[in-house]
Amino acid sequence: FIHHLKMRSLFNNQLNMVDLNKLNTTHTNIPKIKEGRLSAQFWAAYVPCDTQYKDAVRQTLEQIDVIHRMCHEYPEVFKFAASSQDILDAFEQNKTASLIGVEGGHSIDSSLGTLRTMYQLGVRYLTITHSCNTPWADNWLVDTGSEPEMHGGLSEFGKQVIWEMNRIGMLIDLSHVSEKVMNQVLDISKAPIIFSHSSAYSVCNHKRNVPDDVLMRVKEKRGIVMVNFYNDYVTCSPTANISDVADHFDHIKKVAGSSIIGFGGDYDGVTRVPEGLGDVSKYPDLVAELLRRKWSEDEIRDALGRNLLRVFSEVRDHLNGTKPDDIPIPLKEVQNPCRTDFGYQDKSSSTCIKSFYPLVLVLSLLNKLL
């Protein structure tokens, strides 16, 4: 299950100000987690696209910090997890395994060193883009025509990111990317991939969803598609119900089998959720609906966790002894006024950075005057 942590937007990460047992302004709190019988949970360390080229890395580190602090503050409920074994251990102890995913490639600021460091801090998946292009990958809005295609999918550095994630054993998440990126990653990744919160395009023609041909490729790659509950991706309209969500589960099973299905949720990351799935305590009702639709107990166990555990351990199988990739992104692909060029030898083109500054100063003076 994927959940956003609304700690920044509600409390500016001041966890001490809030009691997660009593919090009632979100889809998620401790009583709801217990009622929903959540045995494992990916918390999304998400920062908005507005932070790109500015303080995305700092803000992401703060979200990683708040997830660790939450596990520390409520040790009887949450157990931090970074491997399949950790998830099983938490299950044995009757705690909710808490994993970290970083939702958006802008969070690594085009740096493989930052990617590796986030892995060291416990991050186990990276969503290649959020709803904005990065200097190395295109996002889903490109497919709607509302944003220009910049890289024809992945740039050369984008491919380096994918291979480095394979090398260190980090899950590659393709929710939010363009269709070209989906297919290119499926072409080049040596390990299974995930869609952490996307539904079926054939059921609701929204570009955030996964087309049937890609579902088939996910199956070939032994990956997983975790169904999103956001109404707009479930029914392509503002309203939806539990049965509409189950239709996505049925469709994905029909096209590619139950081995690629998971529960995405996206609670607290979205504004509208289906009737009957109002918060995380309602997951068992969706399971009941799938049972009513003649899903076998085995298929449901797969969707509830076994598929993800399989992907998680198979991603680890692709670790190899090769050296870390330390070739940086070309300077010209990341130049902006907020980035210095220390370490780059070829600075012939960095004069354009300097020329930005007078403009920035004039604009900030104008802002002050206005």
Features:
14 helices, 11% strand, nine-stranded parallel beta sheet, 370 residues, alpha/beta
Integer-rounded radius of gyration: 21 Å
Helical amount: 40-55%
- Which blocks of ≥5 consecutive residues have pLDDT under 50? 349-357
- Let me know the average pLDDT: 93
**Which structural class fits the helix and strand makeup?**
alpha/beta
Q: Between the first and last Cα atoms, what is the distance in angstroms?
A: 46 Å
Biggest beta sheet summary: 9 strands, parallel
Number of strand elements: 9
Q: How would you describe the shape?
A: globular
What percentage of amino acids are in beta strands? 5-15%
What is the number of helices?
A: 14
Order of helices and strands: EHHEHEHEHEHHEHEHEHHEHHH
Any overview of this molecule?
With 370 residues, the chain is α/β, with parallel strands linked by helices. Helix content is 41%, strand content 11%. Strands 1, 2, 3, 4, 5, 6, 7, 8 and 9 form a 9-stranded parallel β-sheet that branches. α9 links the parallel β7 and β8 (224-228). α11 packs across α12 (283-292). The longest helix is centred in the last third of the chain and has 21 residues, at 297-317. The chain is globular and about 65 Å long. The model is unreliable at 349-357 (pLDDT under 50).
